[in-house]
């Protein structure tokens, strides 16, 4: 399996110049996990948000990030093209799945960029698997229940698939062969958030990896929470960018015409990753 996976490291181009990845499935902890690999260079692992696919979270920034690095974008349990293991989701299990994927791809150490739920998974990777982590970028991470307004939890307690953003539903149906998978993904994501428990301070403080925390000034994640995390992670930087949840990377539900946020955010990310 690994030999086939390694072949995905060279990026293909379509006839119109659009970046086309090499897609691959890797056996990971009972899952057939889907990943896409773009470009060459030091690996940067991208971990999408809840209810999302690779493209809905990162489609706007992958072309720029792949100019100087090998981008390995994953889809987690029950999301996108990755199947379901008939078990509840947890951020800890997602972290273990990504860590095994990295091992299967024979990568000793990588940088990680997680968005939203993917940022919480990235926190768990840094806590549970520090030996594979160089630098981490946390886009709108949640570590404590008080990191979002109280009404967020009211919404989660009453969440229905009818209220799921249409762009995310369409994106899932576009890539997944499982007609029933959308409801499964929705219900698993909701249950995980309803049952979310604070990550203990001592575990957050144990993170030694250089860390960049990014949120929007109109994010679901509060500035106070981002600042609290920044203070707990000793080797961290904090950036608060104008815009909503994920708008700073052009996440699909916030993407606007003539989007230019990445003109600033991607160079900032690259500068952080390239620091000695």
TrEMBL record:
<protein>
    <submittedName>
        <fullName>Alpha/beta hydrolase</fullName>
    </submittedName>
</protein>
<dbReference type="Pfam" id="PF00561">
    <property type="entry name" value="Abhydrolase_1"/>
</dbReference>
<dbReference type="GO" id="GO:0017171">
    <property type="term" value="F:serine hydrolase activity"/>
</dbReference>
<dbReference type="InterPro" id="IPR029058">
    <property type="entry name" value="AB_hydrolase_fold"/>
</dbReference>
<feature type="domain" description="AB hydrolase-1">
    <location>
        <begin position="42"/>
        <end position="177"/>
    </location>
</feature>
<keyword id="KW-0378">Hydrolase</keyword>
<dbReference type="InterPro" id="IPR000073">
    <property type="entry name" value="AB_hydrolase_1"/>
</dbReference>
């Amino acid at each position: 399996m690994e030999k086939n996976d390694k072949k995905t490291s060279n990026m293909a181009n379509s006839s119109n110049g659009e970046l086309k990845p090499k897609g691959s499935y890797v056996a990971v902890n009972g899952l057939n996990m889907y990943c896409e690999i773009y470009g060459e260079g030091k690996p940067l692992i991208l971990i999408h948000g809840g209810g999302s696919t690779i493209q809905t979270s990162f489609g706007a920034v992958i072309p720029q990030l792949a100019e100087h690095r090998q981008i390995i974008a994953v889809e987690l349990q029950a999301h996108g093209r990755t199947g379901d293991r008939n078990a509840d989701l947890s951020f800890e299990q997602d972290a273990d799945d990504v860590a095994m994927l990295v091992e299967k791809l024979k990568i000793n150490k990588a940088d990680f960029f997680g968005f939203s739920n993917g940022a919480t998974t990235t926190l768990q990777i840094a806590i549970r698997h520090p030996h594979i982590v160089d630098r981490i970028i946390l886009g709108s991470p949640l570590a404590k229940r008080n990191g979002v307004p109280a009404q967020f939890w009211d919404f989660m307690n009453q969440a229905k698939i009818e209220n799921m953003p249409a762009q995310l539903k369409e994106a899932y149906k576009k890539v997944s062969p499982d007609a029933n998978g959308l409801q499964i993904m929705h219900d698993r994501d909701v249950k995980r958030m309803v049952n979310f428990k604070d990550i203990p301070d001592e575990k957050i403080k144990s993170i030694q990896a250089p860390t960049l925390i990014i949120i929007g000034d109109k994010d679901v994640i509060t500035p106070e929470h981002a600042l609290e995390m920044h203070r707990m992670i000793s080797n961290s930087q904090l950036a608060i960018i104008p815009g909503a949840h994920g708008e700073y990377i052009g996440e699909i539900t916030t993407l606007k015409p003539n989007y230019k946020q990445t003109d600033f955010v991607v160079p900032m990310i690259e500068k952080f990753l390239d620091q000695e």
